[in-house]
Amino acid sequence: MSSKVHLGHTARKRFGQNFLTDSNVINRIVGAIAPDNEHVMVEIGPGLGALTEPVAAAVDKLTVVELDRDLVERLHQHPVLKHKLEVHQGDALQFDFMQLVQPGKKMKVFGNLPYNISTPLMFHLFEFAEQIETMHFMLQKEVVLRLSASPGCKAYGRLTVMAQYFCQIVPVLEVPPTSFTPAPKVDSAVVRLLPYETKPWPCKDVNVLRHLCTTAFNMRRKTLRNNLKLLLSDEDFAQLGIDASLRPEQISVPQYVAMANLVIDKKAG
Asked: How far, in Å, CA of 81 to CA of 74, rounded?
């Protein structure tokens, strides 16, 4: 991709913009995304089109969600892309992705996500997981480590539990700062999220699971017993076979789901 694309647009700090400029990395990401016409292809934050151009070249239509009005205007005027794109100007965090679903077609969602919204945006997208085939995101490497962490790791937390509840997580490649303009101060990585057709550990109410995880991880240094005392008793932990003296990062995803389901059953009872 030529660097001419950057003329006239300055990356904006408030949008967390860092533009991908390394063609080798771009090709590898597009290969991972595997664009096709059997899915609704959706890009979040196309920016200057580093991924947009090669993905659009492989499909009949590409839908993009972009907040920055200047960049939306630029896409509308792009000689090649303007015929291929369906552009939604707005905040992806507020966006109803259900409106993009077509009969018999699931979405493939991808993006080089602004670091400041990556976590809340993934939580938002999990709400539409049943309509999504794959998600490929460029994220801060540290966020990818959190997504793919195992119990007992420092990186393991609320994001880990919720992401692994909805999706299988596959790290794809690491991307150095030199692949971007301006170069970010952190390492980046691409991750593949594959929403489960059938969840391995179904929760009766995902809102309860979300609340339980937030409560458990609010004070990471404290034990489960301390953090969840308003939700679960010692008898409850014993019934589940979970050691209440453990810390939140030592508890597996299926154990969190089991705790949430017990909280739900207690309310119903």
From this structure: 10
Please give the sequence-ordered ranges of beta strands (E in DSSP) within the chain, or none if there are none. Answer: 19-20, 40-44, 62-66, 85-89, 107-112, 132-140, 167-175, 180-181, 188-195
Is 156 in contact with 146 (CB distance < 8 Å)? yes
| Token digits of residue 88 | 């939604």
3-state secondary structure of 192: strand
| Residue list for the binding site | 18, 20, 45, 66, 91, 112
Tens digit of pLDDT for each residue in 85-123?
A: 999 999 999 999 999 999 999 999 999 887 789 999 999
> Which residues are CB-contacts of 207 (< 8 A; sequence separation ≥ 6)?
none
Q: Please give the full DSSP string across 4-27, using - where no structure is assigned.
A: GGGTT----GGGT--EE--HHHHH
End-to-end CA distance of the chain: 61
Q: Which residues are annotated as a binding site for S-adenosyl-L-methionine?
A: 18, 20, 45, 66, 91, 112
Instruction: Give the amino acid at 14.
Output: R
Q: State the amino acid at position 34 in one-letter form.
A: A
187 pLDDT higher than 90: yes
Q: What percent of the chain has pLDDT above 70?
A: 94
Kindly report, residue by residue over 228-269, the tens digit of the pLDDT.
Answer: 999 999 999 999 999 999 999 999 999 999 999 999 999 998
Rg of the chain (C-alpha set)? 20
